[in-house]
Amino acid sequence: MLPTTNHNPAFNLTRASHVSLSVTDLERSRDFYRDVAGLVVTRETDNAIYLRGLEEASHHSLVLELAKEAKALYIGLRVRTDDDITAAEKFFKENNIEHRRVEKDYQGPTLQFRDPVGTWMELTSSMDVVDRKMQQFNEFVAGAPQRLDHYQVVTYDVQTATDFWTGLGMRMSEYTAKDGTDELWGTWMEVKGNTHDLVFTNGRGPRLHHFAYAVPDGASLIHAADVAGALGFGDEIDRGPGRHGISNALFLYLRDPDQHRIELFNTHYQFIDLETPPIRWDVSNPRRAQLWGMPASRRWFFEASEFPGEEVHEPLLQANPDTLEDYLGIH
Ligand SMILES: [Fe+2]
């Protein structure tokens, strides 16, 4: 069933903004995100490292926290003002949504909550401001990621996730549905004016499939792949380069030393005008996944980062994706 966006939501979301991951070796993960992906290190402490994209003026868009187990801790969204945090708290209380206020270094008022399919989220209304490095071209390395753009979450119930988030003002730009029906298999939802901030796809979940940074151009993806190969991470490219049908982006996916997945991509098209309908893709149409390039590997389809303490459920819809291994006849 297609969702309806609430254009007067209880509070105002503005964009995907920051993600926290637990990692088992801080230095090893820092080296990966700095040297292989190309992010900027804003600050290092004994138990956390804060990174950002080159054009970002906010203190961090990726936080690595040292822990015994690698998990996706939170995915972050910004809200417009401090009052939106207060309004969100009231909304979650009234709707029995698990939530808590937290104090976070370098962030303004911050509220964490669990969405109805078990995705752990963090809202904040501000962050410490730092220098943009978008014209420090001498510091552009690897993919030269400019800014965090979106998340993809694997969920056992795409419909419930989509109804919740469109109820908070997100708008669906593209979706996959079972052939000939509106049974939702994947939904790409946005709040910032391009095709997505938050994606839910059908599968064992909740798990964070990837977070994505926009790079300057397609050539940056090839350079990132070359750098990954040069630094011994060539086997950690688990998909791409290629071009998605959905959202029309060139892409490259990499696994970090704990197997968290980062996507580098060359940005999306605008999706702002309300009369524009979402683009529908039959789930059987392989062009939804790639217009050209090889199908995704099994590990891309089936591996993702769990949230701590959150039970992973089997999906309500049973999928059997065509993988690279099927394509190549490898069993
Ligand atoms: Fe993505």
Explain what the structure shows.
This protein is of the alpha+beta class and 331 residues long. The chain has two domains: 13-129, 2,3-Dihydroxybiphenyl 1,2-Dioxygenase, domain 1 (Roll), CATH 3.10.180; 142-326, 2,3-Dihydroxybiphenyl 1,2-Dioxygenase, domain 1 (Roll). It is 18% helix and 33% strand. The protein contains six helices and 18 strands. The chain has helices at residues 26-37, 82-94, 158-167, 218-230, 298-302, 324-328; strands at 13-23, 40-44, 48-52, 62-66, 71-79, 99-102, 110-114, 120-124, 147-155, 171-177, 184-190, 198-202, 207-214, 237-243, 250-255, 261-265, 279-282, 305-306. Strand 6 (99-102) and strand 7 (110-114) form a beta hairpin.
Write the SSE topology.
Layout: E1 13-23, H1 26-37, E2 40-44, E3 48-52, E4 62-66, E5 71-79, H2 82-94, E6 99-102, E7 110-114, E8 120-124, E9 147-155, H3 158-167, E10 171-177, E11 184-190, E12 198-202, E13 207-214, H4 218-230, E14 237-243, E15 250-255, E16 261-265, E17 279-282, H5 298-302, E18 305-306, H6 324-328
Parallel strand pairs: 1-4, 5-8, 9-12, 10-17, 13-16
Antiparallel strand pairs: 1-5, 2-3, 3-4, 6-7, 7-8, 9-13, 10-11, 11-12, 13-18, 14-15, 15-16
Unreliable spans: none
Strand tally: 18
Class of the largest domain, according to the CATH hierarchy? Answer: Alpha Beta
Q: Per CATH, which architecture of the largest domain?
A: Roll
CATH superfamily of the largest domain: 2,3-Dihydroxybiphenyl 1,2-Dioxygenase, domain 1
Overall geometric form: globular
